[in-house]
Amino acid sequence: MKSFMIFGAIVGFLIGGGFSLAEDCSWPTALWRACVAALVLATVTRWWSRVWLQSLRDTINQHRYARSNLPKPKPAVKS
Description:
Blueprint: H1 2-22, H2 27-68
């Protein structure tokens, strides 16, 4: 989970800083925007990784139960 957040923060920082500098913003403004973009993208990446990993676990469990001929488990409750 941490690696996804770090990756999202790096990508967000690069995108935010890149677009700010492309608009010819001053360095302090570009740094501030890059930090905000890093925070937002890290948060979105954290949410997305949780959804993705939960779906992966559900799929693996469904395949295990299908092979062992056990009754299908109830789907996970989404919150």
